[in-house]
Amino acid sequence: MARLSREAANVKLAKQLVYLSAAISLVAALALWFSGNREHGQFVGLWVPSILALGAMLFGGRSAAI
């Protein structure tokens, strides 16, 4: 039983890292956009849905809630 809870904790941590990565990417994109590097901001901004899609692909069937 401890194995299941540890596995669930690992899945929860991995999901949080996906969300954190997407949030950091969004903040970086906004910082680039408002600093005048609009093309770079758009490029980095495109990472957000890609990171979230990767997370959905990896953890789509997992039941560990955040």
**Form type:** elongated
The end-to-end distance, rounded to whole angstroms, is 20 Å
Annotation field: number of helices: 3
The Rg value, from CA coordinates, equals 15 Å
For the sheet with most strands, the description reads:
none
Oligomer class: single chain
Mean pLDDT: 88
- What portion of the residues fall into strands of 2 or more residues? under 5%
Residue runs with pLDDT of under 50 for 5 or more positions: none
Order of helices and strands: HHH
Structural class by sheet pairing and helices: mainly alpha
The number of E-state strands comes to: 0
Helix-residue proportion: over 70%
Itemize the secondary structure elements and their pairings.
Blueprint: H1 2-34, H2 38-45, H3 47-59
Detailed description of the structure:
It is a single chain. With 66 residues, the protein is mainly α. The chain has a domain at 22-59. It has 3 helices and no strands. The longest helix has 33 residues, at 2-34. The radius of gyration is 15 Å and the shape is elongated.
What distinguishing features does this structure have?
66 residues, single chain, 82% helix, mainly alpha
Short description, anyone?
The chain has 66 residues and is an all-alpha fold. Helices cover 82% and strands 0% of the residues. It has 3 helices and no strands.
